[in-house]
Amino acid sequence: QLHPHFLFNTLHMISALMSQDVAAARRMIARLSDLLRRTLDSSGTQETSLADEIEFLEGYLEIQRARFHDRLTIELRIPSQLHDVLVPRLILQPIVENAIRHGTAAHATPGVITIAAEQRGPLLILTVCDNGPGITAGKEPQEGIGLANTRERLQQLYGQQSILTLTNRPEGGACATIAIPIVAGR
Length: 186
Known about the structure:
Layout: H1 4-18, H2 22-40, E1 47-49, H3 50-68, E2 72-77, E3 86-88, H4 92-105, E4 111-120, E5 123-130, H5 145-158, E6 163-168, E7 174-181
Parallel strand pairs: 2-4
Antiparallel strand pairs: 1-3, 4-5, 5-7, 6-7
């Protein structure tokens, strides 16, 4: 589920680009069209390869980079040997959107979002970390629609074998971690 503000901000950015850089505006329209098409295309499958998930995420991030310019740096740490592992479709986008919204958009300092994957035994560990203010000490993190939907989807697909946590990073910022089983033969 794409956040409505993302859609409105993107349309506003495209409108502004039309008078400055028509080619860039066309690229953003094409990216937004691709994102909407993939979001709406359920095609009955709940899972996709990690490589396809990252490809979708790259389109989303291209729009966000255009919006934030030099205020947003994205670091992808996805080993090629994990590209074929199956993950829930569109699982990373709401987590990354939260990291941008709470870790970059609301602050004047440049944001760094790190998206990583690793295999730990039978589990795939996906992490999305930011360098923002983190979670307020002593408070439970507020779980909005994105995190709640993600948690529910993980529960439906993997039951108790899945984990979604949100924690502070020692060096500052927050980190969302998803752990799901790697199941052979899927």
